[in-house]
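User: Please predict the structure of the protein below. I'd like the answer in structure-token form so I can feed it into my own downstream comparison script.

Assistant: Understood. Taking the following sequence of 206 residues as input:
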Amino acid sequence: MTAEPEEPVEHVERHGREEPSGADPGDRRTPRYEEERGGAGTPDNFQRLWTPHRMAYIKGTGSGEGCPFCEIPKMTDEEGLVVSRGETVFTVLNLYPYNSGHLMVVPYRHVADYGDLDEPEYMELARFTRLALAALRKASGAQGFNVGMNLGLVAGAGIAAHLHQHVVPRWGGDTNFMPVVGHTNVLPQLLRDTRRMIADCWPGED
């Protein structure tokens, strides 16, 4: 009686990683090596958090069709996370914040460059930036801020086709081991609650 042919053994490269203590070198079942089976690029020391829902933001370029900054003003304040609306600009929470309370001041008009703003737009953008600073100080006791724009893809703009100014509150010790070592941001409050808190502290008209 002839023996049945053996099933081919799937080859798994270890790429220099050490086996756990007591592990069977022939064991190919552990999911620990899933990224080494040829589907995740070159293995490294980083874990990945896959966020395909962000593609809607990344693809927000062109004439304005599908641009989230063009769609947000059509929503209610709660749905769009809008903090305040002006004549030519609005202020909205960043859906992917660098820090809790991260705001963006955005013109309604779909323009890409600061030089494309007309006078009423850049004047109100500056005024809303000042109001955002005051609201964040009152709402959260922010001790400092990062304020600025990333103009163009090469400058790091996530939505390069629609200009937006970032207003990021900062506190002493807010850069800790979680983002530095764990590559993870810890946000202590739900976005809808943050929106309400800042909106309640938004200064009235001058």
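That's the full token string. The first helix runs from residue 55 to 58.
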